[in-house]
């Protein structure tokens, strides 16, 4: 039981969620290490959504609204931290949820499917009983792609990746949106829109932004997207990190 008065209360709650998810077989063991790395970056970020992250969220929302087939990729950490929000994101955007794992086992796929269904998902792609395709150029199990999901997507959200896939997806002409607290990661550098912020803060803001932009004309959404420069935004994100006392 974490006392609410603890100065690191919010952060410890997330840690507790992560540990529970590991014990339930949802999270890969290295998912805990990935979370710790994220915590360190978040600490330096002041645990707040920066202005560059807000701009990236807006561009991401515009891309999702303009998309014909938006797909949201779910791994262990995403399922552990924001399952309900991922389901809500699908509901408001007409997008699809697809399980895609680096450390893929049938047990973990089942455990994550269960979490998503419990959170309200009607359909989950990327399961083992589906005849999955494989993306060329990716050696890891992350190459799996559902024919109507990641394989066909024009816009794909890939939170907390380890970089092997974002580059390939981007090269195939898809708009790749990532959420990664590390602006220097290969994923952040290779994606079309990199949101440098904690996934637990991003999802509610992305949902809010989509709801706000829903009634905008296509030309206005396209303008938001065209005006977004990912490399410039990543540089601005780097400036936000507090490296002095
Ligand atoms: O569930 P699986 O099998 O697909 O495995 C997923 C992990 C996360 C283990 C795998 O993708 C991995 O090893 O990722 P990396 O290389 O550790 O990269 C994860 C990135 O996410 C790092 O740059 C972290 O800083 C970042 N990160 C960690 N927690 C968060 C985060 N970014 C946003 N929000 C977080 N809460």
Model description:
With 245 residues, the protein is an alpha/beta fold. The protein has one domain: Phosphopantoate/pantothenate synthetase (Rossmann fold, 3-Layer(aba) Sandwich), CATH 3.40.50. The chain contains 10 helices and 7 strands. The strands form 2 sheets. The chain has a 5-stranded parallel beta sheet with strand order 2-1-5-6-7. Strand 6, helix 7 and strand 7 form a beta-alpha-beta unit. Helix 1 packs across helix 4 and helix 3 crosses helix 8. The protein is globular, with a radius of gyration of 17 Å. The two termini are 31 Å apart. The structure holds ligand PTJ. Ligand PTJ binds next to helix 2 and helix 4.
Protein topology:
Layout: H1 9-23, H2 29-44, H3 51-66, E1 70-74, H4 76-93, E2 96-99, H5 106-118, E3 133-134, E4 144-145, E5 155-159, H6 166-171, E6 175-179, H7 186-190, E7 193-195, H8 199-213, H9 218-226, H10 230-240
Helix pairs in contact: 1-2, 1-4, 3-8, 3-9, 3-10, 4-5, 4-8
The protein binds ligand PTJ.
Ligand PTJ is lined by residues 28, 30-31, 34-35, 37-38, 41, 75-77, 81, 101-103, 160-162, 179-182, 185, 198-199.
The rounded Rg comes to: 17 Å
The chain-level mean pLDDT equals: 95
Distance between the termini: 31 Å
**Which structural category fits the helices and strands?**
alpha/beta
The amount of beta strand, in percent, is 5-15%
Strand order, sheet with most strands: 2-1-5-6-7
Q: TL;DR of this structure?
A:
This protein is an alpha/beta fold and 245 residues long. It has helices at residues 9-23, 29-44, 51-66, 76-93, 106-118, 166-171, 186-190, 199-213, 218-226, 230-240, and strands at residues 70-74, 96-99, 133-134, 144-145, 155-159, 175-179, 193-195. The chain has a single domain, classed as Phosphopantoate/pantothenate synthetase (Rossmann fold), CATH 3.40.50.
